[in-house]
Amino acid sequence: MKSSHSIWNEHYTRLKSRLSYPDENLVRILSRVGLAEGSNALDFGSGSGRHSFLLKNQGFRVTALDSAENSLEMVKELVPEARTILSSAPPYPFSNKEFDLIVSWGALHYNSQDVIQSIVSEYKRILKDNGVLAGTIRADRDTHLSVYNGKSSLGDISGADVNLFSEAQVRNLFIEFSSVELGYMERTPIGKLEERICHWIFLVKK
Fold it and tell me: pLDDT tens digits, residue range 104-135?
């Protein structure tokens, strides 16, 4: 069985992983958080680097973290000035209260339950007081990832850790933060109307 690292490193060699445009929901969130230019932002699970690029263009000082070397190579192409960190699990090599903003878009759910809880604890540690965490996590209505016993059986990420969350579980995950706002998005893949791709969107403040 392939390791999680191997699965994701191979994933980021495929053309479909090269997402170029930021998620419009994140664009809207950033327009309302009101952080100053030059604030420190972490793109957690940076993937193709599309949100690192967005953060740079919005005036943030960007750090990108991912567990796949091929992901970080994409980030370096798009945002050469970004600091890149290769890390697969907490604790992360950041100081307490280092970041004004953490973006965790489509990444958190690709971990075991224990690791997810540890990551959220790290988010709290490395966020500044009144810092902002914005991200998505897969909802329990999702059928696209074909999750069974905490693993996906979908295509090239088959065997990867995946956990799905109810609204109550998402709120409980961030219970130690000062505020949690949620949104929800759902879509179907082209040609697969019977499937559902479902995400909770979260905006959390320390």
Answer: 999 999 999 999 999 999 999 999 999 999 99
Roughly what angle, to the nearest 10 degrees, separates helices 4-11 and 69-78?
40
The 3-state DSSP class for residue 9 equals helix
Residue 4 exposed, middle or buried by CB count within 10 Å (0-12, 13-18, 19+) = buried
Residue among 147, 133, 128, 157 at smallest CA distance from 195: 147
pLDDT single digits (tens) 55-72: 999 999 999 999 999 999
> In the CATH scheme, what is the homologous superfamily, with its name and number, of domain 4-149+160-205?
Vaccinia Virus protein VP39 (3.40.50.150)
Report pTM.
Answer: 0.94
**Tokens matching residue 131:** 């810092």
Start-to-end CA span in the chain (Å): 39
